[in-house]
Amino acid sequence: MMNRSGMIVVAALALAACAGTPDVAPSAPARVDIQGGSIVNLWTQKPSDADLAAAAKARDTNPNRPVPWWAEISKKPDSFYGSEEGRRMAENILSWQDRGTGWPLMNTTREPFTGDVSKAGPWGTKAALIKATVNELRFLARAYRVTKDERYKQAVLGGLNFILSAQHPSGGWPHSYPLRMNDYSHYATFNDDMMPDLMALLQEVAMLPDFEFLGADNRKKAQHANDKGLDFILTTQIRVDGRRTGWAQQYDEVTFEPRPARVFEPVAISGGESASVLHYLMSIKNPSSQVVAAIEAGVQWYRNVQIDGLRLTQTKDDRIVTPDPSAPPIWARFYDIQTGRPIFVGRDGVIRDRLADIDQERRGGYAWYNFSGTGVFKRYATWQSERK
Question: What is the DSSP letter of 24?
C-alpha cells in the first residue's frame, strides 16, 4: 500500500489492544543473538500447541483477568471511598499487594486474596509494572485522602517505592522487576504502554492533591523520575535518514538501541507503542522545544505510514485483511526500520511481508493491525488548539 507521498505505508497498536491480555510466555526463556546486524531469536524450548491452547483458555476463563476498572471508579464521589462498597474494594486491593511493593497483573478489586495463587490467573501474584500497580495507587491515594486509613498510606508508599526502584539509571523501566538478565525482561519497555502509564502516574504523584500526603520529598522523587523518563523517550525516538519517526517496543537500557522481545516481536518501529508515547507527550504542560519536535515528527510518521484501502476482519481465532477502498485507515503493529514496510512474524521467528503468511495461532493471537493512528490525529488536533 502507498500513501500520498509514495512511501510504503505501515502501522500501530491501539492504546488498549493488548491491555490485560498479554500473550503467553514461552515454556523457557528465549535467547536473543545479534548476527551481522540481523536479529535471531532462539527458543530453548518451543511451546506446544497444547500449551498455547491451555494458556489461552486460562486467560479467557479467569474471573480476575485484567479489566480497565479505574476509568469508571475514578468518577465516583469522595463519599464512595468511605462507603461499604468502597472499603470492600480497598480491602481487596490491599490483600493483593505483593509484600508491600506493587500489585499483580489482574483485577485486584473483585475479591480478596485468600492464599490461592491460582485466583490471580496465568501471570501469578508477583508485582508487575505492565497494566498493574498504577491504578491501585490511584485508588488507595484517594481512599486515604477521604478516610485517613494509615494502611492505605503505607500501601501507596510501598507501591511508589517499587516503581521508583525499578527505574534504570538511563531513565527507562524494565518489563519486569526485580531484574532478570537472562531474557528480554530487563530491557527498557514501551510495550503495552508501560512507560507512558508509569510516567502519567508519576506526574500525578508530583502534582495532584490526591498525593499531597506523600510529602514534598516523595513528590520531588516522582518528578525527577518522570524527567529522566522523558529524557529517555526523547533519546530513543528512532531516526531514519536523519528524520525522527516513532519508537520501538523495547530498548537496551544502557546503549538505547532497539531490542527484540518474544520470538514474534522483532526489532521494529511500533505503531502501537508510538501512539501511547505521543499521547503522553501531548499531555505535558508547557512542553519544551524538544518535546514539540518529537510530537510533530511522530505525528508526521503516522501520516506517512497510514494504510488505506485495506479492511481488517477479526474473528475469535483469526485476523484477515482484504482490499476494500471504503475501509477506514489502519496501521500495522511493526515496521521495518530501514524500509518502512509492515512486517509480521510467527512463532518460527521468520519475518514475513504478509499477515497471511504467518501461522494462524499468531494471526489470531496478536494485534497486527489497529486504528491507533486515528486517535493520534484527533489528540494532535486538540493539542494544537490547546497550544494556541
Answer: P
Q: Please report the domains of the chain, with CATH numbers, ordered by start residue.
A: 30-387 (1.50.10.20)
The CA–CA distances, whole Å, from 181 to 110, 174, 311, 339 equal: 34, 11, 41, 31
Distance, in Å, from the CA atom of 385 to the CA atom of 378, rounded to the nearest integer, reads: 11
- Going by pLDDT thresholds of 50, 70 and 90, the confidence category of residue 318 is very high
CA pair distance 41, 386, nearest whole angstrom: 44
Q: What rounded mean pLDDT belongs to the chain?
A: 88
Distance CA 179, CA 305 (A): 35
Instruction: Please tell me the distance from the alpha carbon of residue 295 to that of residue 367, in angstroms, as a whole number.
Output: 24
Q: What is the DSSP letter of 174?
A: B
Q: By C-alpha distance, which of 151, 131, 201, 198 is closest to 171?
A: 198
**Residue 110, C-alpha cell as written in the block:** 473483585
* Burial zone of 237 (CB within 10 Å; 0-12 exposed, 13-18 middle, 19+ buried): buried
Largest CA distance in the chain: 61
Computed on alpha carbons and rounded to an integer, the radius of gyration of the chain in Å comes to: 21
Are the C-beta atoms of 201 and 163 separated by less than 8 Å? yes
Q: Cα(160)–Cα(93) distance, rounded to whole angstroms?
A: 15
Q: In the predicted model, is pLDDT for residue 19 greater than 60?
A: no
* Cα first-last separation, the chain: 35
Q: What is the pLDDT of residues 51-67, one digit of tens each?
A: 877 877 888 888 999 99
Per-residue DSSP letter, 116: -
Tell me how far apart the alpha carbons of residues 189 and 177 are, in angstroms, rounded to a whole number. Answer: 12
* pTM (2 d.p.): 0.86
Question: Residue type at 324?
Answer: D
**Residue 49 has what pLDDT?**
76
Q: How many CB atoms lie within 10 A of CB 333?
A: 29
Task: Please give the grid coordinates belonging to residue 213.
Answer: 500526603
CA distance 215 to 220: 9
